[in-house]
Amino acid sequence: MHKQTIKTSTNQYDVVVGKDIINHIDQYLPRKYKNILVITDAEVHSLYADKVVRHLSAVTKVHVSVVPAGESSKSINQYYQLLTDAINYQLDRKSLIIALGGGMIGDLAGFVASTYMRGIDFIQVPTTILAHDSSVGGKVAINHPEGKNLIGSFYPPQAVLYDIDTLHSLPEKEIRSGYAEVVKHGFISNEDYLSDILKIDLTKALQPQILSDHIQKGIAVKASIVEQDEKESNIRKFLNFGHTLGHAIESELGYGRITHGEAVAIGMLFAIRVSEDKLASNLPFNELFQWLSSNNYPLTLPPLSVDDLINRMKKDKKSENAQVQMVLLKEIGNPIAMNVDDGELTGLLEKFLRELGS
Amino acid sequence: MHKQTIKTSTNQYDVVVGKDIINHIDQYLPRKYKNILVITDAEVHSLYADKVVRHLSAVTKVHVSVVPAGESSKSINQYYQLLTDAINYQLDRKSLIIALGGGMIGDLAGFVASTYMRGIDFIQVPTTILAHDSSVGGKVAINHPEGKNLIGSFYPPQAVLYDIDTLHSLPEKEIRSGYAEVVKHGFISNEDYLSDILKIDLTKALQPQILSDHIQKGIAVKASIVEQDEKESNIRKFLNFGHTLGHAIESELGYGRITHGEAVAIGMLFAIRVSEDKLASNLPFNELFQWLSSNNYPLTLPPLSVDDLINRMKKDKKSENAQVQMVLLKEIGNPIAMNVDDGELTGLLEKFLRELGS
């Protein structure tokens, strides 16, 4: 078991990464709660909800709300339904919400917790690799048809309880999605960690020790950044490496058509190309492309309009005054946020999409 | 012009009370903004929106979103529509939302600001007496059919700009509603301020100097409490004097049937009766009743089920473990939060409603 403590402007919380946590979840709660709502999706529910409920119901009242799996549950309607559930289950300000699932559940349940009665405690219990990223740092949100995570809060959890035993049940697609964020943490932090990651073969069974190590390091990269800049005024933006185009692709295709990490993977390739062009950086485009390809990341896209993608990129929350801002790399471990003007972006994006054969 | 500075855990902001502020609103903004969304209701729009837009559009881009007047606009649908407006108007994280109107607009627009792109700046420009209370302290929210303000955030504004010239256009009903909160601030702070307030005759034209004085003192009471307890862990609850039953009456009758302050006025009478019963307090029930009555506050209610009211009171955010908590007074200026058990409450409420002749 490995524990990191994250300090935020308003609280501090532990991120625990280890085996067999869910079966002892009652012992990991930071305080006693009299009423708990577990929010989970249909897939995770069938795998872990019973365990969580069993180990908590000995000590407290527990309710479960299940939403459909997939990004489309991060909707205003689902959000409102969960608030209604919380009211019906008589949750009060001293109650707890547990987000049991991947990043979608953490974002959705966290946003419910952040706005139910102006904010109650919540705990992240991630069950995907991707959620090593999203569960740390206090960003919670739902989507709007016009863009991802446009509605949300900065609202840190009271704890992140990461049981890596849950990761063995992940489908390949989810492993790919999660590892894209691990790769991102490599790119923005240091070369050794990155080259270590790019050695892994995701098509084979993952070694728990390697997986756990990669995840802990990824969390450490993220924690160090969010502690310095919780509200994304400056360096937190670096965590969006690959996300400007990634989010645009996700929303342009319609959430769920491609996983978040798969979209970010393509976004990182593009961010490298832009970095080469604008900063004359020397970056391992081919090595990343090769690794993504051999691990079955989808690297060709259906035909997409460059103008539409750029409009999506402008709706990104990092965008200011309708200018697209991207995170680029001067070198590995040395990111920078830069505005890229429309004309330049159009040319680079057209060329990139041709390069991908889209 | 009178200025008070409020310090919160995350920022500090000025509350400016004075004449002719709207006509110089551009000079009162705490910083420059490139894109502003003014959120207002249909009634206030026809009176002041043009002025605000005129004085801002010389210096920046300004959009206006108008919602129907009345508490029913504090709905999930209206909230979502305003977020969609903000996206369509291309507001970014450096943009500003101005809440131009009464407490409903402040709550609604503030909640939009608190969750749009995880929070952007907003400024309160109150146009009612009631909003002297709601515009200070950073509580923002929308309603759920099951209860008032159940969905919201703690999110302080960047400034409160209170132009008392706007108060002269208020209908009597709104003056009554606002003065109930002024009276509340009297009850929970000190006897002299309270007896000063209870001398005013709301049925006659209000003297600007007296009005301004009452409002400034009310804001000072509120500011002192919220600075000590922003997130309502303890003494902030005292501001809910009269609100436990008040909120229950409002939602049981359906929002809009009775104003917030009118409901709180009845709630204060009840809180006094409960204080007399539980704490043997000696409080001016008759004096308050007399003042409310001579100022045309509605003091008889349509028949209401005591059980339904108590169920509503349990859904109040101050309630813990399904116990009703009320703010009572040991004496004027000396409030205390207490749980009241169901049986006792039923008896007291039945008696009180009979006393009112309901």
Note down, in words, how this protein is organized:
Chains A, B: Its cofactor is Co(2+); Zn(2+); NAD(+). Chains A, B: Catalyzes the conversion of 3-deoxy-D-arabino-heptulosonate 7-phosphate (DAHP) to dehydroquinate (DHQ). Chains A, B: It catalyses: 7-phospho-2-dehydro-3-deoxy-D-arabino-heptonate = 3-dehydroquinate + phosphate. Chains A, B: Belongs to the sugar phosphate cyclases superfamily. Dehydroquinate synthase family. 2 copies of one chain form a homodimer. Chain A folds into 2 domains: 167 residues, Rossmann fold, CATH 3.40.50; 185 residues, Up-down Bundle (Dehydroquinate synthase-like, alpha domain). Chain A has 358 residues and is an alpha/beta fold. Chain A has a 7-stranded mixed sheet, sandwiched between helices. A two-stranded antiparallel ribbon of chain A has the order 7-8. In chain A, strands 10-11 form a two-stranded antiparallel ribbon. Chain A contains 13 helices and 11 strands.
